[in-house]
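agent> Task received from the user: take the single chain below, predict its 3D structure, and emit structure tokens. No templates, no multimer pairing.
agent> Plan: (1) validate residues, (2) run structure prediction, (3) serialize to tokens, (4) report one or two observations.
agent> Step 1 OK, no nonstandard residues flagged.
tool_call: predict_structure(input=
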Amino acid sequence: MREIPKISNAEWEVMKIIWDHSEITSTNIIQELKDKVEWKPATVKSLINRLLNKNAISFNKLCSEYLYFPLVSEDECIKLESQSFINKVFNGSVKSMLLTFAQSNEISETDINELRNILNQSSKKEG
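)
tool_result: status=success, residues=127
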């Protein structure tokens, strides 16, 4: 299995745009980020180069333009980031994480019921 690269918060913003397109130019990435962040075009191009070096994205050259596309899926990166978060904050315990969220005021009764249904479905699959 190939290794999923660790993506920084800034790189994550670029990746979200790349994931939303099958192929996209740096100019279009810069344009889409313009309303979200106050980065100079050179900053965005540096982030693209970092993602290229990490093998998170690649490109096809069409005339004088580079069309960037993801080499890793958003789901793969979400799983990696989720596991990293659980390991760092909750010492790897999903139970501790769920208890913390369930006991906080930040999770609604509707969310709790949805989680309960998901957990019930998961346990039925295992049984």
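agent> Step 4: summary for the user.
The helical segments are 9-19, 26-33, 41-53, 74-90, 94-103, 109-126.
agent> Done.
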